[in-house]
Amino acid sequence: MLEVRLYLAQRASAAIMAPLVLIHLGVMIYTIQGGVDAAEILERTRGSFFWGANYGLFVIAVSVHAAIGLRNILREWLSLRGIGLAIISWIFFAGLLMAGLRAVAAVVIA
């Protein structure tokens, strides 16, 4: 049953990430073509609830997706099982989540 829930969580996180990646790429292409540099982008994102929520959700989805993917790789390639597999997966998830949310905060919080 755990494997089914993890499978569904990974697919759901992918479904969340897909439109967020398209939004990110579209905005970046539009912005760069408009001649806006990194300093101006940061200036525009400071204090923005929309961008904070957008990138925060993206970080959460990526953290879930990547941790489940790593768990599957470790289980298949290294035959890890049980509590060791769970601990590594959770540590990886927590590390990604903390690093990602810290980056979002640096870009959005004024």
Q: Describe it for me?
A:
The protein has 110 residues and is mostly helical. It has a single domain, classed as Fumarate reductase/succinate dehydrogenase, transmembrane subunit (3 helical TM bundles of succinate and fumarate reductases, Up-down Bundle). The chain is built from 4 helices and no strands. Helix 1 crosses helix 3 and helix 3 runs antiparallel to helix 4.
Brief digest:
The protein has 110 residues and is mainly alpha-helical. Helices cover 87% and strands 0% of the residues.
Q: Tell me how many strands there are.
A: 0
Query: What is the rounded Rg?
Result: 17 Å
Shape: elongated
- Unreliable segments (pLDDT under 50, ≥5 consecutive)? none
Class derived from helix and strand content: mainly alpha
Total helical segments:
4
Q: Assign a percent range to the helix content.
A: over 70%
What is the CATH superfamily?
Answer: Fumarate reductase/succinate dehydrogenase, transmembrane subunit
Distance between the termini: 44 Å
Q: Which architecture does the CATH hierarchy give at level 2?
A: Up-down Bundle
- Which CATH first-tier class would you pick? Mainly Alpha
Largest sheet: none
CATH topology assignment: 3 helical TM bundles of succinate and fumarate reductases
Measured by DSSP, the beta-strand proportion falls in under 5%
- Give, in order, the helices and strands: HHHH
Return the average pLDDT rounded to an integer.
94
